[in-house]
Amino acid sequence: MTSLPHKLLRCSQQLALLTWFGALVACAQPPAPPPERPALAPTAPVALQLASASLPTSALLDIGVAVFTSTVNAEQTSDANAWLFAEISRKETQYLPYVLRNTLIASNQWGAVRVLPENDPSVDLLVHGTIFQSDGEVLDLAIRATDSTGREWLNKRYMEVAAMSDYPDTTRFTPGRRFDANNFIDPFQDVYDLIANDLQAARNAIDAGALAEIQLVAEMLYANDIAPDAFAHTLQINADGTRSVASLPADDDPMRKRIEEIRLRHYLFIDTVDDYYRALYDEMQPAYVLWRRFSLEQIQIETSDRLREFEPANYSDSNNYLSLTQRYDRYKWSKIYEQEFTELASGFNNEIAPAILELNQQVHGLSGSMESQYRQWRGILQDIFSLETGSAPASR
To answer: Looking at the 3D structure of the chain, how many domains does it have?
Structure first.
């Protein structure tokens, strides 16, 4: 008769054997695949609304598109070249506003449209943007627009999905196959067209008198920025927090005429600022387009790899030569794109940007970054007005 201790020993051995066998089965079978990424579909095509006739002066508001902000950072990518990702992310905060600027100009619905480093009191309408995602496949950004009175025109989130067919079919531009900027359509152009159409719809909902008021408030807001003591009485804050004109100097008022002259000088300067961002846009575009294409390709391949990894036929193949060669090809192309982007984008940093900044230094006596020069210029105009009129200088 088998003793109780012997029975217990046999049971424990059988249990251990079952546990070991179960572990082998678990190892031989692929784990459950990860949940599929929610399907993202492109928005319906958007047609940019073009002006069909001459618009009244009150409708031709001047727009300033401020350099965007970004919530994207290098920590969100596992790429070894995180520094390059950070540089691209930083530059696209200046690149994307220029795409919007070009779209607004193409609509022929507005006055002057410029990209600016920060808020500017001389413009009628200010547009701000925040980038939440920009990886070549998805562009997700929020746009907020407010006029000089403080009225909010737009506060909306926009998202668009691109496909590989939206990009050039080449993986590298060469002297024999150059980037054709004139015939290139941005993969996310529908987003910019929609923003432009939304701004136009917001303007169309405002009557001509209110639009004229926006322009007058912008004029007095700029006058307050240059000479607050002389023009503080011209504006008032309403119960809803918006601004309106409280009193307006006569058209032939000498102080008002002086402000108009200084404002024209300021327009010439911010035209130069806009040229700075145009130079960045032109220099960066070919490399940025390729980088977006490569990023989208990476996303598609990695998504496919993750799903294929959990297929039984692939799971047991420890010597997956095809997978290794694909990974090597991705690495090889990533180095090519890295070199391409670094060479083209650094050309702006090393040649074009310093030339524009030096021009401002020679013409206006300014120095430092574009943001710094912009603030210096506003200070110079305040000092000029103070010297010419004998008024107290604006505090800064």
So the answer is: 1
Ramachandran angles phi, psi of 278, nearest 5°: -65, -40
The model's pLDDT over 181-206, given as tens digits with 9 standing for 90+, comes to: 888 999 999 999 999 999 999 999 99
130 bridge partner residues: 69, 142
Per-residue pLDDT tens over the stretch 116-130: 999 999 999 999 999
Distance of CA 160 to the CA centre of its chain: 13
Beta bridge partners of 142: 130, 157
Q: Is residue 144 part of a domain?
A: yes
CB environment 36-64: b (16+ within 10 A), e (fewer): eeeeeeeeeebebbeeeeeeeebbbbbbb
d(CA 152, CA 253): 32
The boundaries of the domain holding residue 153 are 57-297+361-389
The more confident residue out of 146 and 325 is: 146
Q: How far is CA 375 from CA 119, 120, 267, 290, 358, in A?
A: 11, 10, 14, 35, 16
Q: What is the DSSP letter of 126?
A: E
* DSSP code, position 136: S
Say how far apart CA 117 and CA 137 lie, in whole Å: 27
Relative to beta strand 138-147, strand 125-134 is antiparallel
* φ, ψ dihedrals at 392, nearest 5°: -70, 135
**Distance between CA atoms of 127 and 65, rounded to whole angstroms?**
5
Position 396 in a domain: no
Burial of 175 (0-12, 13-18, 19+ CB in 10 A): exposed
How far apart (Å, rounded) are the C-alpha atoms in residues 281 and 96? Answer: 9
R_g of the chain, CA atoms, integer Å: 30
3-state helix, strand, coil in the chain (%, to 5): 60, 10, 30
Q: Return the number of other C-beta atoms located less than 10 Å from residue 230's C-beta.
A: 21
Q: Answer whether residue 71 is part of any domain.
A: yes
Q: Are strands 152-161 and 69-70 parallel, antiparallel or unpaired?
A: unpaired
For residue 352 the two structure tokens come to 């074009």
Q: How far apart are CA 48 and CA 194, in angstroms?
A: 7
What lies within 8 Å, CB to CB, of 103 at 6+ separation is 48, 189, 192, 193, 195, 196
Q: Is residue 345 part of a domain?
A: no
Nearest CA to 290 among 330, 336, 328, 326?
A: 336
